[in-house]
Amino acid sequence: METTCDSKQIQGLVRERNEYRRLLKKSLYAFNVLRNHRISESLNDTTYALASEIDSAFKRFDQGEE
Question: What is the mean pLDDT of the segment spanning 9-36?
Answer without folding.
Answer: 94
